Amino acid sequence: MTEQLATMEFHPQPQPGEAKPWAFPAPQRGALDNGLTVLRCHRPGQQVVAVEINLDAPLEAEPKGLDGVATIMARAFNEGTDKHSAEEFAAELERCGATLDAHADHPGVRVSLEVPVSRLAKGLALLADALRAPAFADSEIERLVANRLDEIPHESANPARRAAKELSRQLFPAGSRMSRPRQGTEETVAAIDAAAVRAFYEKHVRPATGTAVVVGDLTGVDLDALLADTLGAWTGDTAEARPVPPVTADDTGRVVIVDRPGAVQTQLLIGRIGPDKHDRVWAAQILGTYCLGGTLTSRLDRVLREEKGYTYGVRSFAQVLRSAPDGTGAAMLAISGSVDTPNTGPALDDLWKVLRTLAAEGLTDAERDTAVQNLVGVAPLKFETAANVASTLADQVEQNLPDDYQAELYRQLAATGTVEATAAVVSAFPADRLVTILVGDAAQIEEPVKALGIGEVTVVTG
Hints:
Distance between the termini: 86 Å
Order of helices and strands: EEEHHEEHHHHHEHEEHHEEHHHHHHEHE
């Protein structure tokens, strides 16, 4: 009997194509008759359209004693309109497969819509209704205020959030809005009612000072007609530009311990204020900061995590607080992480040694090359979704940057050398000009931290 061997038919192995040059997509800029600025970006294949609305309603515009009113207003945008109750509005969003979110931050309020392109007309109509005629019903505002009041104790109990709150309080003058919690305190939030929300809305929310960013596959979509029928129906007065005070901060080297008796870990947040994206040093600063603590292979992790085992990870970052071409903007430059309580002193000692080594010896070419590969090489993947593109374009608008800024930033990162990146990160994190916040057990960590000599040590209640 002849044995028959099974045979397999293999399909030809796919061959890789030639790599195509990539650049961050450039938007088309225009405006509606009501003054609303519009940026549109056609992204073939992106069947979920992302819409970002920038509203010129910054936190510093909140009335005295009503910190958090911008946040409550933002949350109330999807809680009913003149056409739909809160429940009906939520049902309409769900019916067209859309999501609508909003949040308030120092530069202003952002409203975000994601909707399938096949339901874009309906999604834009709901978004326009939310901006044009929000209900701000007493019962809904009361519920949102109660929810916010419930959140505050949980945030205070979170070591990372508590550290961020303390760093802001320490860095900025007491009269600055940046020194106080973004979403308000128990006292200020409790004072917010529907009348206060509506007054803030009527004073600051209008199309003439807003921007809409629309990103997705717009093939066959008459976007001009859709916008005219929806966001174009939103009306409002014009407004003069509001003077923006410069960001000032005190980065005198010092340590503040937020006492948490019995804590088994110490949350650390080390920061100061530095230049924003309008400064020519930004690209080098981003590159150097990434080398210092941007990923698992960065220098801080290599020493504190891999060599010493003090932590699961320590990160350094730069976060824009307010950006302005006239030099009045600023970014938060910070190092954050957590270490076990007994090793708080040794961990801080080694962290400062890393900073001093940077100043004395600099970064290596290998560190610089890895950072460029990670920051620039993954950019096409980072911006595969319409939402990420729309968010970045809205960031550029919010930060008063040109439409081609992000594309230019990647070119600058790729061209930045090791020496330039070293100088930038050393300038960003000078060992003697950092405010250190430690949330932990003061009884165990105060004396070891004092012995380091990195600044005057103060203990505050947790």
